[in-house]
Model the fold of this input.
Amino acid sequence: MKKSIYLFSMLLFLLATATSCSDWGEEPELNFLELESADVSFDAFGGTRDIIVKSTDDVTASCGDSWCTTAVSGNKVTVTVSANGELLSRATVVTVISGVKKVQMPVTQSGVRIDFDRSPLILSGEAGDTTLLINAPVPVTVTSSTAWLVPSVTDTTLTLHVEDNPAFASRASTLTLTAGSFSVAVEVTQRGRKAWLPFDAYVGTWTFTHTISTLTSATMYYKQATAVASGGTALHVTLKAGMSTSSTFTFIMEYDSVTGTVNIPVQKVFEAGNNDVRLSGFDGGSVYFDIGNGGMTGAPVSGTLAKPVLAFTDNGKATGTNAPYVGFILWQVARDTGRGVGEYTTFGYFSTSRYTNITMTKQ
Done:
């Protein structure tokens, strides 16, 4: 009996001793994990960033998407992100584990962009180079739809080399800039080397060619036109039938210094009794004798600088279901009412007044 009491007393003593020992101080934590520093924000180029960790145990790390990978060395987790070829940004999560502890860190990456001057690219007709500044966070490739336009690109510049364009007419090409899977198309126009004619190139004698349209036939007529400078940007053009000097009338042709072309606007050309005779827009069926500044634009299409050939088209200001113009017509308008009276057909050799499919060739 005494032995049992003794053993029980010893157990109470040991229990009390164990309890009192735990009161002497806290036991150290078995597992600890903390991120000391981290910068895992990337631009579209991608690259690597480091996460520094504090931990009592070995560390492992993983990333939630295939474009992001991790590598662990001691207390450092290296995050590697590939280039982002998409327009949109993207995000994922890096998970760092030590023992039973886990910390997650978001990883973000911006999308691609291509910044440069996207103004309409109108290049000279002569061979040469044009350089544009370009900014993109990933490498950019550039292709051209035509052989005469050759692009080359570096990290910051886009150089466009054009071959000589000996024609009057301009020509067009398309540049395609690609960064990753994102691309943008840019239209490039090269002027014809001869297209921008100086004002003096229009002064002189021309062969005026046109078609007189009827319901049953179309006959080509050749006439002589003489253009004389008349101050500013105006040219007074005297048109006569063949070599006749008695059957002439004069109209104004306006020079456009920006494009080197000329315009024949709607205008009064002479009087006929109580009526005015106007040079009016004509679409082959309907007459536009009060169309404001409408008319025909003449642009070089062939020839040489000294002897260009002009072709005239609607200048884009004609309206209505019968637009565009195909030429002009001499039309009588009552001076007192402004109403159209009819086609003017009694002027000497000009037995009809319809001028369609117009060209002028410098003599």
Observations:
- The mean pLDDT is 80.
- The two ends are 146 Å apart (CA to CA).
- The chain has three domains: 33-109, 115-190, 199-362.
